[in-house]
Write a structure and sequence with these properties.
Chain A is an alpha/beta fold. Helix content of chain A is about 40%, strand content about 10%. The N and C termini of chain A lie far apart (about 85 Å). Classes of the chains: A alpha/beta, B mainly alpha.
């Protein structure tokens, strides 16, 4: 019945064509497998490289920059280990483990002779064109200016939390006004980060990594704090988890920084210039902003103020190392392993306290 | 046709043709991926891979961190 010879010529033609079409499909499949499988293997190898690259982005870029002479991507300057300022120098005591240091009251007054930190130039966005050449500070060894946070021994109840590893990557956005008035702005920001990194390791056991430093083409020089925060929250992060924006003007009196005391760690914050500080204008603000993200809260406690905690309104004496009150230190250590918020994905934004 | 011991030259050809050259090409492909991934962590392929393998751009232990209870914030 199915024999084509017994059927008519049309049926025989149809059967032959279907057989030819089947063999064509087989050939096409074989060709696809022959070409597709090697291509798939190559794609998998390339993808493995991409994965390794993206998970170690800063190290790869720093390696390329240092050893291969490849410039970092535009708008992204990764601080290599060679660029980083060593945490200790002649102005600081030798590196000791946090527990080996004396108790808190003794730490608030550093034993070493106070250094004479050059006062930052006044930063005023309006007349900065005239001020720029005058205000450029003399080139000094950057590590001689800032002192890491003084720490007290940590209690046994927090020791386990303190020892838990925590790595957080930061991307720092710098106000162009600050770039204008400081020729060494990049070195200054790296120094600022480095001394903050040392402080966070000593205070909380949190390792901060610098993912990048970028000049912040903010919405406008006159943008309000809320606009700046909104802009910062939606910026490209280049693998960083936390965005910090340096603003070269004083904090508006009506601006209240967000406190992240709930279930997540904050992912963006502003650091304003603090003209009342005797020493550096941004160091204390950076410590404060980061501590707020990790769950610390502003304090008006008399003991904390007397201690000079950077979460209080107390001014840091010139040449003194910043300190943190024990209560806020404990809050951050307890909250250090919270997941980090993603304000880009959260439509409503972080919860404001 | 009898098969004799491969000469040293043919061995060298075999090693070059099957090990060195393909290995170099594959390593170049891998490192090209590393370069691209490091410079473009926000591109689609990077995000897809991070999503597939549950990583967050090289950040250790952030997504699976147990949230700390906010009630125990007192340290005194």
């Amino acid at each position: 019945m199915d024999d084509p010879s017994k059927l008519g010529p049309d049926a025989a033609r149809r059967s032959g064509s279907s057989r030819r079409s089947g063999s064509r499909m087989r050939v096409a499949g074989k060709l696809t497998a022959l070409l597709g499988l090697p291509l798939l293997i190559l794609f998998v190898i390339f993808s493995a490289g991409v994965y390794c690259g993206v998970t170690r982005a800063d190290r790869v870029v720093a390696f390329e920059q240092r050893w291969l002479g490849v410039d970092p991507p535009p708008g992204r300057l990764v601080a290599t280990d060679a660029d980083a300022v060593p945490p200790t120098d002649s102005d600081e005591p030798p590196e000791t483990p946090p527990d080996a240091q004396p108790a808190a009251p003794a730490d608030t007054q550093p034993a070493q002779p106070p250094v004479d930190p050059p006062v930052d130039p006044p930063i005023d966005p309006q007349p900065r064109v005239e001020q720029a050449p005058v205000e450029s500070p003399p080139v000094t060894a950057p590590s001689s200016r800032l002192l890491p946070v003084a720490t007290a021994p940590i209690g046994p109840e927090l020791r386990a939390r303190f020892d838990e590893p925590r790595v957080v990557r930061l991307k720092l956005m710098v106000d162009p006004a600050l770039v204008d008035v400081r020729e060494d702005w990049l070195g200054y920001i790296v120094e600022l980060f480095e001394v903050t990194r040392v402080g966070f390791e000593r205070l909380f056991g949190i390792e901060l990594l610098l993912q990048g430093v970028v000049v912040w083409d903010a919405p406008s020089a006159a943008a309000g704090a809320d606009e700046l925060l909104a802009d910062l929250a939606t910026r490209e992060r280049d693998g960083a988890e936390v965005m910090i924006g340096f603003v070269a003007r004083a904090q508006p009196p009506d601006f209240e920084p967000k406190a992240w005391t709930e279930s997540v760690t904050g992912d963006h914050a502003l650091v304003f210039a603090d003209r009342q500080q005797h020493g550096d204008r941004y160091y204390r603000g950076l410590l404060r902003a980061l501590a707020l993200l990790f769950g610390a809260e502003p304090t008006h406690d008399a003991a904390a103020t007397q201690l000079g905690s950077f979460m209080s309104e107390a001014l840091t004496p010139a040449g003194a190392a910043p300190t943190l009150d024990p209560e806020n230190r404990g809050k951050v250590i307890i909250h250090k392993r919270r997941p980090i918020a993603d304000s880009r994905a959260t439509a409503g934004g972080p919860q404001e306290i | 046709m009898t098969k004799g011991e491969p000469t040293r030259r043919s061995k060298l050809r075999w090693v070059l043709g099957w090990i060195v050259l393909p290995g170099t090409l594959l390593a170049a492909l891998f490192f090209a991926g590393v370069h691209v991934g490091a410079r473009h962590p926000e591109m689609g392929l990077s995000r897809l891979l991070l999503w597939m393998f549950g990583a967050e751009a090289g950040v250790a232990a952030s997504a699976d961190d147990p949230p700390a209870d906010s009630a125990d914030s007192s340290t005194e």
